[in-house]
Amino acid sequence: MKRVFSGVQPTGNLHLGNYLGALKRFVAMQDDYECVYCIVDLHALTMPWDPDQLRDATREVAAGFMASGLDPERCIVFNQSQCPMHLRLQWILACLTPLGWLNRMTQFKEKAGKQKDNASLGLYGYPVLQAADIIGYHATHVPVGDDQRQHLELSRDIAGAFNHTFGLDFFPLPEAVILGEATRVMSLRDGRSKMSKSDESDYSRINLTDDRDAIALKIRKARTDSIMGVSYDPENRPEASNLVTIYASLAGVSRDAVLDEFQSARFSDFKARLADLAVEVLGPVGEEMKRLSADPGYVDSVLRDGAERARAIAEPIQKRVEELTGFLVP
Ligand code: TYM
User: Which of 147, 196, 243, when mutated, tests ligand 1's pocket best, judged by the most ligand atoms within 8 Å of its CB?
Assistant: First the structure.
């Protein structure tokens, strides 16, 4: 049986990178797989947080999921804290994970920065919780952006460590699904750094909640170079190449098709067309998010129902894990 699991952190604005690298892929899989999509509010505690903002951001990501095309009737949408398996399984897995594996994680190094001693235990153990998220549902496929590759490899190693410890093939080894043209969308201000919610400049990203004018303005203001024409050359033209990638992904075509279409165009004309395309695709997503945000009662009911369905999958798996682990149920 094939089951999909993926997660998004409720930490600030959803942006074009999340949309093209993850949400669009989530939607593409909902017809062919049993899909479980999670707003990972436990993971959000690994950086400083504000309780009210966390609640709002959780609803906003849920709204973003649905506005992007996820149908809560066909897939499960819930927030992580509402299914107790994640934390219970995380502990057991943490006790089977060597520190050496965690020491290799580049995302910890980036997020902890120079102040490693001040980083929390939660941030360090983040990838173990991520492994629990995935394997606790016996998920086989995990659609993610390229930046999650290393965490997915670790999830496979941790699943393997559990299986090896208890001498059976209990957890399937989950496969990362990193597909499409836009697995790594770059900043609109600097083509060598990833588009991210933590970038100080709002012009570096397109937020899914940006209105049509803001979307068009950000594309118009996106940094480019003085080289003539439209080409794909990430080494020498990182910003221009990123815009080609974004165009391809928004239009649902290959990069080569974009290059063919614009082979004799000026870059400014290409940018104008990209602005129109981005407005056409993302405008309705932002508007639907706004509509859903005005109805928190509905969003909460989706999450409540999703959590119930998530627990129904996770509980029997977790029960078996705890039997294998050796917990006495007196
Ligand atoms: P998060 O919340 O940072 O990002 C959510 C998803 O968006 C993708 N993404 C991007 N894709 C392309 N270009 C970008 N610039 C870009 N920025 C973000 C991410 O790859 C991700 O797929 N650790 C995860 C959350 C998580 C998770 C999980 C994911 C927790 N448990 C279990 C999968 C399975 C994270 O921080 O994603």
Answer: 147
